Amino acid sequence: MPFPIEFKECPICHSEVTICRLACADEPSIPKDAYVSLEKVFTPFQQPTQMLAPVMKGILCHFDVCGKCGHRYCVRAEKVSLPVTVQQTSGNPIRFDPKSHRRL
C-alpha cells in the first residue's frame, strides 16, 4: 500500500465527517486543499541519538475524532522528512531532581 494512506471513514460508524473538518470547513484562512486534523504524531525511523544527517525520517500519523460517534482514529499516515537542529549543551547534563517534582 503506497503512502500516504488515508482512512476516509470512521471504523466504528463509517461516517466520513470529522470534528476538525467540520470546524475548518468555513475558515477562510485555511486553504481548501490543506489537510487538517486534530492531532499529529511523528514516529522516527531511527533513534534521535543515532542521526547521521540533519534530517529525521519517519511516519506522521494524523488523528481526528468522528463527528457522528466521537471515536478517535487515525485518518492519515504519511512518510515525512523533518529538518532537525542540534543544540550543544554547556557540558553539564540535565538532571531530574525527584524532590522538586510535584504531583498534581
Summarize the structure.
The chain is mainly beta.
Overview of this structure, please?
The chain has 104 residues and is mostly beta strands. It has one domain. It is 6% helix and 30% strand. It has one helix and four strands, in the order E-H-E-E-E. It has one helix at 19-24; strands at 5-6, 39-44, 55-65, 72-83. The chain has a four-stranded antiparallel sheet with strand order 1-4-3-2, with no helix packed on it. A hairpin with a 6-residue loop joins strand 3 (55-65) and strand 4. Residues 100-104 have low confidence and may be disordered.
Q: How many domains is the backbone divided into?
A: 1
In round numbers, the mean pLDDT is 83
How many strands? 4
- Helical content stands at under 10%
> Roughly how many Å is the radius of gyration?
19 Å
Task: Report the β-strand fraction as a percent range.
Answer: 25-35%
Describe the largest sheet. 4 strands, antiparallel
Tally of helical runs: 1
Cα end-to-end separation: 44 Å
Q: What is the H/E order?
A: EHEEE
Shape: elongated
Secondary structure class reads mainly beta
Strand order of the largest sheet: 1-4-3-2
Uncertain runs: 100-104
